[in-house]
Amino acid sequence: MEWCQINDLTAATIASVVIAAFTIALFVLQWRQHAHARKIARANYQLALFDKRVQLLFEIENFLAKFHRDGRPSADEAIILRRKLRNAHFLLPEEGMILVDEMVKKTAQWEVAHSVWEPLRARAWAKEELSDEENSKKEGALKKMHEIQDWFWKEAAKRIQENFEPYLKLPPSV
Hints:
0% strand, mainly alpha, single chain
C-alpha cells in the first residue's frame, strides 16, 4: 500500500509539473501572438497614415500643377487646397505644414499685387498717361508678382520633398 501511495504522489507531482509546463508554454505562445498582433497593428497604422499623407501630397502637387499650367497661383485653388488640408495638422507635425501655409500666403500676396497691377496695366494699355507714382506702383506690383512666380517655380517643388520626405517613409517589413 505504501508503494501505491508513493506512485500516486509521484503521478500527482508529474501531472502538476506537466500542467505547469503547458501553462507556461501557452503563456509564451499567447505573449508571442500578442507581440505579433501589435507589430501588425503598428504596420497597419503606419500604412494608413502613409495613405493619408500621400493624399495630402497629391493635393499639393495638384495645386502646383495648376500653377504650372496657368503660370500664376490661383486664389480659388488656394482656398480649395486650404479646405482640403484643413485637418492636415492632425497627420503631419507643424514643420510639414509650413510649405502649405507659405503657398497660400504667397498666393494671397500675388492676388494683392495683381489687383494693384491690373488696373494700372489696363489704363496704360488704353494709352492713358500714368503718373510717376502710378508707374512705380505698377512696376513694383509686377516685380512682386514675378518674385512670387519664381518662388513657385524654383522653391515650392524642392521644398515639397524636404517637408514631406521624412513623413512618407514606410517600414521595410512587418
